[in-house]
Design goal:
The chain is an alpha/beta fold. 40% of the residues lie in helices and 19% in strands. It has 12 helices and 13 strands. A 5-stranded mixed β-sheet has the order 3-2-1-4-5, with helices on both faces. It has a 4-stranded parallel β-sheet with strand order 7-8-6-11, with helices on both faces. The longest helix is centred in the middle third of the chain and has 22 residues. It is elongated.
């Protein structure tokens, strides 16, 4: 068989390991041939392809980013299913593997529903996709955020400052929750739970009164109970969504004014996406890449690989799409017992 691969949406540590896993298993075990499309769905619709043999994927499993490049492109704005079918026929492809998050897999599902041979691999640093316990990239992002917070705590302790660390998380707070708990944060603010300024100040003062330099972790999509929408002052992205970021800088002066504690904010931003993937993400991404080849062999179009417990399973796109995997209230309340 001849199989196409593309990586779409935001980059995540582990994308190259997926590509490597799929190509190595597909070529060595089944004799398949692979073609990669540069720049996600845009490269697919533009027929911008490159060969993917063993030589092209050597040594990439431990590298960040994606050798194929990526973009936030909607294929239905560039010819849709007829154009995709035309490109698959042009390159004599029997299947297409789409590696991406919610938006990218929603496009894959629609293409599959229209009769195209598409399977998927879930990817998002936010870990917000249903149908899978974890997505690769999340563990790396949490590790990077945790290390940054450890560093913020030492400088905060030196100056007796309150430090506010803003992490990724447009709609869900998994990165904030995990990294905040790992770093021993005195307050964690997530999109799933509106929090009052009084409650936040209580946690900050409690930590300060115990002689600690308070550490506040906030997801970029967090909303105070006095706010209607997430903080955004950077315009819209390619999909018309507000570009989030800056809530940490908004909270810091409010904390300092109310408590008298010198407060500084740091936004980690795309640092969480970059660099080498963690060992966990390398292994998970490799397993996903190898397992998605089995979906192709079985002609299980409209499905993706997923992690359930410690095993790789197959789930329908519809199980993963339509609703985000949010932080349950009980998980947040358990973490909140450590605040202040």
């Amino acid at each position: 068989m001849r199989i196409g691969i593309l990586t779409s949406g935001g980059d995540a540590p582990g994308l190259n390991a997926v590509i490597r896993g799929a190509v190595l298993k597909g070529t060595r075990v089944h004799g398949h041939e692979f073609v990669g499309f540069r720049g996600g769905y845009k490269g697919l619709c533009d027929s911008d392809a490159m060969p993917l043999a063993r030589n092209e994927v050597k040594g990439i499993g431990n590298t960040g980013g994606t050798i194929l490049g990526t973009s936030r492109t909607n294929p239905f704005e560039h010819g849709g299913a007829p154009r995709v079918r035309e490109v698959l026929d042009e390159h004599r492809l029997d299947a297409l593997i789409a590696v991406g998050g919610e938006g990218s897999l929603a496009a894959a599902k629609e293409l599959s529903d229209l009769g195209l041979p598409v399977v998927g691999v879930p990817k998002t640093v936010d870990n917000d996709l249903n149908g899978t316990d974890f997505t690769f990239g999340f563990d790396t992002a949490v590790g990077i955020a945790t290390e940054a917070m450890d560093r913020l705590r030492t400088t905060g302790d030196s100056h007796s400052r309150c430090m506010v660390a803003e992490v990724m998380g447009r709609h869900v707070g998994w990165i904030a929750l995990h990294s905040g708990m790992a770093a021993g944060a005195h307050a964690i603010l997530i999109p799933e739970r509106k929090t009052s300024m009084d409650e936040l100040l209580h946690w900050v003062r409690s930590a300060h009164d115990r002689g600690r330099a308070p550490l506040v972790v906030v997801a970029e999509g967090f909303v105070l109970d006095t706010m209607d929408d997430a903080h955004s002052e950077r315009g819209l992205d390619a999909f018309g969504r507000p570009r989030l970021g800056g809530i940490g800088e908004k909270l810091a002066p409010l904390i300092e004014e109310a408590t008298g504690i010198e407060t500084r904010a740091t936004t980690l931003g795309h640092i969480q996406r970059g660099g080498t993937p963690s060992a966990f993400d390398r292994v998970l991404a490799t397993r996903f890449g190898m397992s998605v080849v089995d979906l192709v062999n079985a002609h299980q179009w409209g499905h993706m690989v997923a992690l359930r417990g410690t095993e790789i399973h197959t789930v329908n796109f519809s199980e993963a799409l339509g609703a985000l995997k949010t932080v349950p209230a009980e998980r947040y309340e358990a973490a909140a017992m450590l605040f202040g």
